[in-house]
């Protein structure tokens, strides 16, 4: 059997890669991809831990909800990206600077 | 460990328990029904009076929800609902009432802006309220995540709703910040689940899991901080405040006013609930282990400084209010950190007054926009003589936001400060004293930027060319007058609010 630590290491790596992508990438779509990695890192954790929560499997339940929420969020995000693209003809976040103080 | 197949009988029993709990959730269910009604209404009501019709419908839904809350949804004792995912106590009821109050005011503000927007605007508003009400009750990591996400997704859409470049840009920025913050929170939650084996933060297993010596303190703290990051984002505490000015500038004005109140107060309730369980687990204040008050107090101090100092440079009234709301977040967070009944009372009072004065400020900005066609503070030059009514109210509201007498803003600030002092002098950490001193010092800074608006209104000369765009409506004038009157009234009769708060004190 694969020990728990392997899953946790994988999840940590995924989370860090995702966070790095969201911070460094300029393109809105790339940021969304990084976001998806972060959410799925949490999902791996939840499902891996849920094996030790034999009675209720709360972790697996949680992961299912996360998948649904992530889909809803991605739908809203892509709709907004399309709108922004319609106005600016770019999806580069650094160049969206109409709102300033 | 072997997995056991859950048997059918407990399932039936738990389903029945869920059905029994539903009456206490009628306020949320009413709002949920309201979302559907508004969507239906947007299709059926003829275009000529659609906006008014939907606004009145939303008002009725909110009133019905408040009625359910006050007359049906008050449990005698704190209860756990829906298979221990929600905890309904007096604190939850108080915060749900505050959320409904801010929703009511947001709909009243929407009569003007709503004309330019589609009917879904009101549906999203009600959805945001429902999620914020669930947030203030959630006691299970799953429900916390779901309610925060529901509130956030509604908020992203509302931000982008005003249409145009600014709305789309603000919505996208808000969404990216928010989604990253909630992904970080989710990762922290998955770790907490791993440490404790339960999602229920009120369960005994959660406490014992956190206290068990098998787990080193560092990962527990890390996980807790990741979760808190999600809450701090909703409250817009520095360093999670970057979205606030952009979102407030891009969003329709009533929606911005709502963002600054309902989700923020619900986030504070959530944070209090979450921290109180850590408190019981002995992780806070155990000298050896970790001083939460210090770290969060530091964040609160930075938040007050950043919010107040950045506000000084703002030219746009909406951005000024956004930074002002960040500054107020710092003070609200400070009230949470007293961790005592006194701090809790001060928080409720401040929250209540903050709703009144913030909505009044946003409403007056909206009225001045209708008169001048601009959100720029520089364009308010010399309006004091022409628009004497709105200008006088603006002065009252700005004084309240600064926290000076004779307005309830002063009483609210005084209560928070005295709670901090009491906490400090009765043996609390010296962080409380630093919070108090920062609060006092930043009030002086606040004087500069809040009074900038009256300064422009009265002491600057009016430009020759005056553009009269729409003019404010009677409803707006009455509402603004009533809010300003309440702000002055509650300074003289603060005991009225206090009596109401006493009914919701934490000691039960």
Report the top-level CATH class of chain A: Mainly Alpha
Range of helix content of chain B: over 70%
- Helical element count of chain B? 22
**Termini separation of chain B:** 40 Å
Estimated radius of gyration of chain B: 23 Å
Encode the helix/strand succession of chain A as letters.
HHH
Report the span from N to C terminus of chain A: 56 Å
H and E order of chain B: HHHEEHHHHHHHHHHHHHHHHHHH
Which spans of chain A have pLDDT < 50 for at least 5 consecutive residues? none
Q: Low-confidence parts of chain B, pLDDT < 50 over ≥5 residues?
A: 284-288
**How would a textbook summarize the main sheet of chain B?**
2 strands, antiparallel
For this structure, the CATH topology of chain A is: Helix Hairpins
Judging by the overall fold, what is the CATH architecture of chain A? Orthogonal Bundle
The best one-word shape of chain A is elongated
Mind summarizing the main beta sheet of chain A? Answer: none
Q: Largest interface by residue count?
A: A-B, 50 and 49 residues
Question: How many domains comprise the coordinates of chain A?
Answer: 1
Give the overall shape of chain B: globular
The proportion of strand residues of chain B reads under 5%
């Amino acid at each position: 059997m694969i020990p728990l630590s392997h899953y946790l290491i994988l999840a940590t790596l995924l989370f860090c890669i995702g966070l790095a992508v969201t911070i460094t990438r300029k393109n809105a779509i790339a940021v969304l991809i990084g976001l998806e990695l972060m959410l799925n890192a949490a999902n791996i954790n939840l499902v891996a831990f849920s094996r030790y929560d034999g009675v209720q499997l709360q972790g697996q339940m949680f992961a299912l909800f996360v998948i649904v929420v992530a889909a809803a969020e991605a739908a809203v995000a892509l709709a907004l990206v399309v709108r922004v693209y319609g106005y600016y003809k770019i999806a580069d976040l650094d160049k969206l600077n109409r709102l300033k103080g | 460990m072997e997995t056991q197949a859950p048997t059918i009988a407990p399932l039936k029993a738990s389903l029945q328990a869920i059905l029994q709990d539903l009456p206490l959730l009628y306020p949320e269910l009413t709002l949920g029904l309201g979302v559907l009604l508004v969507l239906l209404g947007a299709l059926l009501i003829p275009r000529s009076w659609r906006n008014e019709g939907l606004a009145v419908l939303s008002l009725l839904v909110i009133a019905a929800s408040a009625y359910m809350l006050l007359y049906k949804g008050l449990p005698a004792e704190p209860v756990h609902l829906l298979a221990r995912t929600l905890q309904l106590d007096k604190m939850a009821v108080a915060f749900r009432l505050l959320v409904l109050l801010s929703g009511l005011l947001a709909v009243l503000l929407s009569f003007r802006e709503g004309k330019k927007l589609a009917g879904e605007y009101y549906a999203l508003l009600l959805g945001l309220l429902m999620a914020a009400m669930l947030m203030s009750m959630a006691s299970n990591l799953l429900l916390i995540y779901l309610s925060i996400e529901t509130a956030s997704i509604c908020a992203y859409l509302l931000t982008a709703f005003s249409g145009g470049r600014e709305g789309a840009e603000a919505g996208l920025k808000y969404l990216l910040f928010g989604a990253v913050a909630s992904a970080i929170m989710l990762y922290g939650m998955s770790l907490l689940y791993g440490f404790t084996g339960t999602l229920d933060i009120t369960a005994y297993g959660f406490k014992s899991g956190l206290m068990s010596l098998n787990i080193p303190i560092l990962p527990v703290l890390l996980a807790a901080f990741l979760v808190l990051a999600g809450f701090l984002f909703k409250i817009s505490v520095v360093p999670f405040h970057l979205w606030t000015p952009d979102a407030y500038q891009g969003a329709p004005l009533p929606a911005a006013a709502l963002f600054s109140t309902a989700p923020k107060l619900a986030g504070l309730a959530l944070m209090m609930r979450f921290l109180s369980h850590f408190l019981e687990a002995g992780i806070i204040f155990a000298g050896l282990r970790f001083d939460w008050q210090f770290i969060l107090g530091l964040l609160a101090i930075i938040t007050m400084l950043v919010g107040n100092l950045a506000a000084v440079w703002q030219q746009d009234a909406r951005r000024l209010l956004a930074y002002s709301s960040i500054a107020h977040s710092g003070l609200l967070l400070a009230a949470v950190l007293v961790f005592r009944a006194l701090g809790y009372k001060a928080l409720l009072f401040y929250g209540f007054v903050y709703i009144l004065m913030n909505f009044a400020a946003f409403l007056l900005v909206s009225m001045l926009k209708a008169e001048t066609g601009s959100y720029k503070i520089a364009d308010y030059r010399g309006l004091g003589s022409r628009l004497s009514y709105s200008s006088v109210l603006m002065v009252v509201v700005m004084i309240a936001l600064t926290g000076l007498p004779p307005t309830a803003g002063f009483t609210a600030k005084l209560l928070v400060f005295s709670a901090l002092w009491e906490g400090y002098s009765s043996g609390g950490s010296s962080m409380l004293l630093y919070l108090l001193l920062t609060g006092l010092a930043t009030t002086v800074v606040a004087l500069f930027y809040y009074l900038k608006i009256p300064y422009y209104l009265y002491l600057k000369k009016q430009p020759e060319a005056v553009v009269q765009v729409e003019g404010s409506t009677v409803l707006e004038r009455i509402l603004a007058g009533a809010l300003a009157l309440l702000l002055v009234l509650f300074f003289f009769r603060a005991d009225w609010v206090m009596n109401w708060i006493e009914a919701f004190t934490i000691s039960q």
